[in-house]
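hey so i finally got around to running both of the ones u sent me last week. sorry it took forever, my laptop kept dying halfway thru and i had to restart like 3 times lol. anyway pasting them below in the order u listed, first the sequence line then the C-alpha cell line for each. didnt double check formatting much so if smth looks off just lmk and ill redo it

first one:
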Amino acid sequence: MFYNASPIYFLVIAAMVVSWIIQWRLRSKSEKYAQIGLQSGLSGRQIAELMLADHGITDVRVISTEGRLTDHYNPADKTVNLSETVYEERSAMAAAVAAHECGHAVQHATAYSMLQFRSAMVPALSGVSKFMPFILLAGVLMIRTSLIPLGVGIALFSLTTLFSFVTLPVEFDASRRALAWIDKRGIVTPQEHVMAKDALWWAAMTYVVAALSSLATLLYYVSIFMGSRDRR
C-alpha cells in the first residue's frame, strides 16, 4: 500500500523537525530583539502609522490583536493587526514586524500581482481546507477499491501547496519593502537594521519550511497513488 513512499515519508518527518527548530529560533530571536530598545523611541504602532502615511495610505487602520507572533495584514477590512507586544514595544523587533505588515498594505495599495494572486486563491482554499483531510483519509482507506477519492484529495492538496509557494514572494517582498523604508526613514540605526533583518529572515524561513513540508506531503500522497496504480 505504501510502495515507494518511505523515502518521502522521511522527508516529511525531517521537514517537521526543521520547522520546529526554526519556530524555536524565531521565538528566541523575537525575545532577544524585543529586549533591545529602539534609539528612535518609536513604538510599533507609531512606526506602522508613519510608514502608511509615507506611502499615502489613509484607509488602513493599525490595531492591536491578542497573542504573540499573531501579526498580520488583513486586506478584507484593511487593517494592520499588530500583536500586543509589537503594538506597544519600542524595539528593533517591533520595528521590523510593524514595517513588514505595512509592507503588505503597500503591496495591496499598489496592486502587487503576487498578493492579488494569493488573495484570489483564499476563498477557494477556505472551502477546500474543511474537507481535504477527510477526502485524503477516505482515499487512503479506500485505495484498494478505488483511486478516485485519493486522486481528488491530491488535486485539492496541490492547491494548498501552490498557495504556500505563492506566499513566499509575497512575504519576501514585504520584508524588502520594510527594511528599505526603516533604513531610509532613519527609524533604525545600522546595528538595529541588522537585528531587524535577522528577525525578518527567520520569520521568512517559517514560510519556506511550510512550503517545502507541504510539497513533501503532497509527494508522499502521490507516491501512494502511483504505487497502488502500478500494482493494478
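and the second one:
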Amino acid sequence: MNQIDIRTFLQHQPLFQQLSEAQREALVPGTREVRGQKGQVIFQKGDPCDGMYLVVYGKVKLALTAQNGTEKVMEILHPSQSFAEAVMFLRRPCPVMAQFVEDGLLLHVSAEVIFGAIAQDPAFAQRMLAGLSLRLHSLVRDVERYSVESAVQRVVGYLLQVEDDASSGSVVHLPVNKNLIASRLNLTPETFSRVLHQLADEGLIEVRGRDIVLKDLESLRDFGFA
C-alpha cells in the first residue's frame, strides 16, 4: 500500500497553501495517514479529539444516533474537505460519530502542530476561522431548509446543487446512496424515493440508479420553488 506525499498534499490544500514552506514542514511530523474501508468508524461520539482530519480520497459521514437507533447524517465530507477543527479548538469530546462511507484515506493533523502554526502565523488562524464560518453558515442554511422547505423543495435543491453546471439533459450522479442523502436532507428514505418518483412522473427527471437525468431544468426549478 503506497504512502502519499504528505508535503505535496498539504501544499495543495487551500487551508495550508499560504503557509511558508518551513511552516508546512513543521506540520509534517504531526500528520499521519488514516486508511479505512467502507463502514469503518473513525471516531465515536464522546471520543477525545486530538486534531483535525483532511479527506484525501473517499467519503466520510458525520452522524448522530438516537436512542432508538435512528441515524441522522449531519454532513458528508468529500476529498479535500476537512473536519473536526471546531472540536479540536474547544478541546472537547467529539459530538458526532465519523465513519467511512467508502474506502478512503485521511490525513490526521495533530492539534499540537496546528496550534504551533497559528502561533507563528496569525493569518493562518484567520483562514481557519473563515473555513469554520462557512461550515456554520451551511449548517444554519440546513436548519432553515428543514424548518421551512417542503420535501420536494429539499430534494430539488439538492439535485440542483450537486452539479453547479447542471443543464437540461445533464446527468447528476448521487455521490452516496439514497438513504444517506435522505438522512442528510432530514427525510425518511421512503419520502426521498417518493419525491424522486413524483419528479419522474412529472417528466422532470429520469432515475437510473444513482444517476439522475435532469430532463427539464427550468421546469424543475419552477416545480420545486413555485
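quick thing i noticed on the 2nd:
The two ends are 52 Å apart (CA to CA).
anyway thats it, ttyl
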